[in-house]
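[step 3/7] fold_predict: job queued, chain A
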Amino acid sequence: MRKITLSNGETVEVECLSCALTSGMIEPDGGVVIETEHFHAHQDVAYPIRGLIILASKRHIKCLDELTEPERLDYINILSKIRKAQREALGIEYVYYFYNEDTTHHFHIWMVPRYDWMYEFGRSVESVRPVLLHARDELNDKKNVKEVMEAINILTEELNK
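[step 4/7] structure written:
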């Protein structure tokens, strides 16, 4: 079991966070943004950043090359659809994408928006970790959480038209 600290400060113990989320055992803030046959998208549960989406496979795999052909097609289509909604519905100009195979849970990609306030931490990929920690530790106030929840609702509505 692994302890995970959620953005609201609560901790949960799970073997695999992605399995817990995609199965509905843990409900992400704002619920599911969009779901397909093979993937589940939700606001990141640990970092309250407006529009930060996790796209996770429903099947417990670790690597991109383990996706079946239908999963690969679904993956690129839903990833593109989410990105378009981030741009058009939320005005997010830039996004960092992160996918790693040495994760403690299964295949997922982080879609991390880039906002002006983040530049105080730098401009490169190295700035993302300090940005995430700052968000978790400093942005759990009611105003920011409300903005995050509003963004989840906007994306959910846009993606499920």
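[step 5/7] annotate
The beta strands are 2-5, 11-14, 32-35, 39-43, 53-57, 94-98, 108-114.
The mean pLDDT is 90.
exit 0
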